[in-house]
Amino acid sequence: MKKHILYLLTFLCPTLLLAQPSSDILLLDMAVKKNQVILSNPRNITNHPGYDNQPSFHTSQPLVYYSSANADGKMDIRSYNLNSKQTTDFTATPVNEFSPTLTPDGMHISCIIQRENGQQDLGIYNIDSKEVTVLIDNLTVGYHAWIDNKNLLLFILADKGHELQHYNFDTKQNKVLAKSIGRSLHKIPGQNAISFIDKSDSTQWLIKRYDHKTGAITTIAPTLPQKEDITWTKNGFILSSDGSKIYTLKPGKNQDWQPVKVQGNTTLLKSITRMATNNENNQLAVVVSE
């Protein structure tokens, strides 16, 4: 079984490829007016050879955290200050770190810690001391999203594929909620719920909602064809991309994805994948090919 899981880790999970694709992170200004999203002024905030990916905004400070390749090819966490335009190394460790995420208490950055043997743990780094605490080391964690301080959803690489699991820190119990899921897990703004991508039907992937209180899983909308990366605005828009253009959909308002107007140097927008929005609802970070 261990050999099987290692095969899955190496060939199926994007974060575990030995040679990470070269990518950069663009920052765009965002205006949300009524039922329209307008993006402008795309600029490169990493501009660094190699892998820069998985951006995540701090909720109250002008910082973007992301995973970035160092000179030795290891993945560390870096932060970009939106005000000073300065980049800082948040970690400098012998392991790989992916998917930096501010914890609900605002005191830590949680991330996936990849060991030399391929094991992937979920850990947290104290923002001030950088002290690390491993939270989960008995599951192969690919991605994660916090529901609250005690609960989170996990993308788990299991023996039979990718699973969505709910993990409770009080009971230390994990429960499988769905299988054949995508990597995009997001807290839905203003709701006690998480969205995830259901890829069980290869012809039509779906954005689904997990309600933490009731345990119900419902369908929100189809994804763009064969695209799994999304993000939410504070007022309920979903943003996604077909790789070259950015689209938006407002559940309950729009039935189809609508193209978003981008003002500025759109030539930077190529091979768009992951996205993140800030808490103020006025900036969007996107990952593009280098």
Automatic annotation (TrEMBL):
Record's signal peptide: 1-19
InterPro entries assigned to the protein according to its UniProt record, in alphabetical order: 6-blade_b-propeller_TolB-like
Family matches, as SUPFAM superfamilies: Tricorn protease N-terminal domain
Record's protein name: S9 family peptidase
Record lineage: Bacteria, Pseudomonadati, Bacteroidota, Cytophagia, Cytophagales
Stored PANTHER family: PROTEIN TOLB HOMOLOG
Keyword Signal among UniProt keywords: yes
Keywords: Signal
Domain of life: Bacteria
